[in-house]
Amino acid sequence: MPSENCINTVLVCDDSYAQHATVMLRSMLASNKKSFFKIFCLVPEDFGNTKNMEESIRDLSEDYLNFIYVDPSDFISAKLSGHVSSAVYYRLRLDAFLPLDVTRAIYLDCDIIVKDDLSSLWTLDLDGHAVGAAVDDFLNKNQLVRSRVGLSPATYYLNSGVMLIDINKWKEKKIGTRALEFCLAHPEQITYWDQCALNHVINGDFKVLERRWNFQSSMMIDGGAWRCTPELLGQLNAAAIIHFAGVIKPWHYRCLHPAKDLYWTYLRETAWHDYRVPDRTIINRIKNGLDRYVPFVGVIYRWVTRRVAATHRRLSSVGSLLRRATRATGLI
Ligand SMILES: [Mn+2]
User: Could you tell me the distance, in angstroms and rounded to a whole number, from the CA of residue 111 to the centre of ligand 1?
Assistant: First the structure.
């Protein structure tokens, strides 16, 4: 079993994500004050935010932070799109970068807020699997993404934003190496970068983590509208790790995730405390207003249409009664 005293965590970031990585780390350390950590931060060789990150978590960290500088040239040919950089692929080779005495680690994305104790995740039995991960709530239902990576209908598609990893098994099974090879050889089969490649290689052979260890934004969105039912808010509240998976992040003005304020609270405690959201445009303010109030209008609309239908049913039954009554009395 892993040592309960020291939790190894791994994250990957470049300069564009240093701010978000620091928020994630502050949330993790503030929510786990009884635990000790070794934090391994994989960064490109020209990374320029080492000092900002160190200073931002110094009051919580007791020198837990270790930077590992990665030569990006090994990853430069892998497929990129959207908001990602080649740094997303570094995690595939974490076994090559971590010190040899690190045999178990929790990998965490940067678009995450940790809000509860991680020790029961850290000591979880992986039941012989190399990886523990939550099912990806959104992509697990996407037949195109699944079929491109060759998953059978009964196989879960994992979300790689939070992974508990047995490093020796990861190495033995060559999970990262094979996934990187797949990325380079079959870019047309990759939709979500390293995550698709990992799903191809792991092929459902992982320990399924409870959703509270990786509570993904897709739980809160339905057809582009944010859902905040009491049940979902209860699940969000009980989650230990909130993962702002998807294109809308808490540092975007358009994000209406009910937990986005946690990001901003922790951000104010970092070197980036003066950061202001850049996309608070008039158009986006109108869009946010619509997103907030259209579901409300929708509720009223559904209530009104139900009342109209009920009234129509009542009127037509009264009408048919009247017709029957008039027929019975021979007036027609
Ligand atoms: Mn993520």
Answer: 5
